[in-house]
């Protein structure tokens, strides 16, 4: 068996010339942080415009749907159903009169609508006035 002392001492590892002088530069190049990318307005606008467009579209859709559907639903209620609902409810005329405030213009418009719905000839009106003992005022 060979003894450790019998093995010749020879340097089997060789370093290329100038390796240790170049080594710090090589390490720094590998470790150096890349420059952070900047956010430009064009990048932000590219992402913001579709989001803003969807928000605007959603607002438009919801506002147009809610206004039209309420009026349509209100128009679909039949008079008989409305009368039955009011008869069954706990609402009385005194409570309603306290909560509703009418302006003079509202009352005039209501009066005009009521009188437009009457289709009574003048002679029939005179008969009704006499029957119910109503005194006529001259306007």
**Average residue pLDDT:** 80
Rg is 47 Å
Question: What is the molecular shape?
Answer: rod-shaped
Poorly predicted runs? none
Q: β content, as a range? A: under 5%
Separation of termini? 145 Å
DSSP E strands, number: 0
Structural class of the helices, strands and pairings?
A: mainly alpha
Sheet with most strands:
none
How are helices and strands ordered from N to C?
Answer: HHHHHH
The number of helices is 6
Helix content: 55-70%
Describe the secondary-structure layout.
Layout: H1 19-31, H2 41-76, H3 79-88, H4 93-99, H5 104-117, H6 122-131
Name its key features.
139 residues; mainly alpha; single chain
What would your notes on this structure say?
The protein has about 140 residues and is an all-alpha fold. It is built from 6 helices and no strands. The longest helix has about 35 residues. It is rod-shaped. The mean pLDDT is about 80.
